[in-house]
Predict the 3D structure of the following.
Amino acid sequence: MTALLRTVLVAFTAALVGIVAPTSASASASDSASVSAACETDPATPKRQLRAMWISSVANIDWPSRTGLSVSAQQAEFRAWLDLAVRKRMNAVIVQIRPTADAFWPSPHEPWSQWLTGTQGRDPGYDPLAFMVNEAHARNLEFHAWFNPYRIANHDDPSRLVSTHPARRNPGWRFAYGGKLYYNPGIPEVRAFIENAIMDAVSRYDVDGVHLDDYFYPYPVSGQTIPDSATYDRYGAGFATIGDWRRNNVNLLVRELDQRIHGAKPHVSFGISPFGIWRNAGTDPLGSRTSGLQSYDAIYADSREWVKQGWVDYISPQIYWHIGFSTAAYEVLTAWWSDVVRDTGVRLVIGQAAYRAGASGEDAAWQDPAELSDHLHDNRKHPEVVGDVFFSAKDVRADRIGAFTRVVDAHYTRPALLPARGSGNAPAAPSITSAARASDGVRLAWTGSGTAYAVYRVDGARSSADPCFFADARNLVTTTRQTTFTDTTAGGLAYTYYVSALNRTHQEGSPSAGRVVEAGGGTFSVVVDNAGSGFTASASWGTSAFSGQRHGTDYRFADPVSASDPAWFRAAIPSAGDYRVEVWYPSDAGYNSATPYIVAASGGNRTVVVDQRSGGGQWRALGTYPLAAGTYNVVGVSRWTSATGYVIADAVRITRA
């Protein structure tokens, strides 16, 4: 799209919605479909996306790593999980705080969890939930409190429960099945008790979401029958089958929780992560083209109904299968769930099986480092998909075969705002009160009325703000709940900063007036584009404007060969010293996975191999190198690689360190 056409479209859109085309004093940060349609956006840098991981406490899967840790050790471990989430550019965590009818907070309803101290009912010496919420919010991560509704214990011996446990004091509330203890979902008093236990945490703590997992009625165990026939006889009048009655019991819990949560705190999000298959099309024409376990029939979870009735704010189906899996293909289920949520207002967040990537014994597809990343590429086909949750934190950290690194490099290169929910009023534009260079970067301060803020940085000194600056996340530097920020990634160029405010449900207001930070005193920085006089290449290098991720008007491409034929970027280096070298290239799945970049450093050339299939459309650092003074070919892109796919030469930035 030409700059002129884009300007016309933006102005026309502004007229339609009754706003003035923004200036530096008041630029609209609206990411509505109409404005986005007028801007070239990059699907690899979406402005809004939920990115989260499950932090599981049951059986000490993730946190705490074992029972009996000291308070300081537990807290240090949890901070490390949050710091991992931040490093991976996530914006939420889903933390299990009621794993087995127990509590990670001082609940008046249920005992302290055994997974904290090793002994059910023992006070851990602090309030873990208060601590966790505060630490998450300090990093501007949403905290979703994860509850397992019916599971009492991973054993079937009631005498092993603490003597004050409600399941011991009310033996008629429970049943044993498959070697485990469960609350009976068909008893109204049980449903009220579970809701009260959950609502205690919602009412007393500043959680951002309530999250239920996929455990409703127990998963089937061969040769066993759920022992609730007497309960059905007592409460099942009006239901043709015990299955219909069981589904209604679960539906009542979901519907009533939805009402109670939003009645107490409208801003709190309510979500469920069901088993990935509702029903198969062979059973029900409304079902998916799959042939696996049906949660509607097996565990009495009518997840499709929850969406159609609007009883949840988001649904996070566990689509834990690989692309092309014959029983339940990832791409088939993602398309099916997208169709289910369409036009309902319910957001679709995919549950991803990070635990399978590179794990021993998994199918060959999961030994491919690209499998997990390819799931997110498939998501881009469906605008209904607004994010992903990864199970579980320890697998994100393990990063077996580099699978999660691939996810981050291809999909999480920039921060992202959380999807907005509801229709609250966006906060007023903040005012940047100071912006100055310091030894550690550019320090910003502002005033505003937001719950959180988004900080944008645009290269150059801008006299006015283009709405397209804010259409995706390519210019988004960070989000924060503070009113100060130090941009440690700033180089020596001139920049214009903008800050917008967000409310509790993530509606974003207009950005502030732009604040220009001049180029650093004495700092040298130069950009050499392939279209400029500093670029040279042989006739074997073609020219293309195909990718919207390009720098400038076009870029150069060439087939790999077993010979030296580099494209060179020439620059005038003012004095000998250390310089940071960055490169820009558009990425594509068909480009080269091992493109050699050559840096003509003092003392000899250095070669850095870059995967150009991902991470494009932004400056990527090759490193800091000693360079000699003078005008010469500083950076080259070589064709000499055994990998397949075009090698790309687009632009280079060289900055005095």
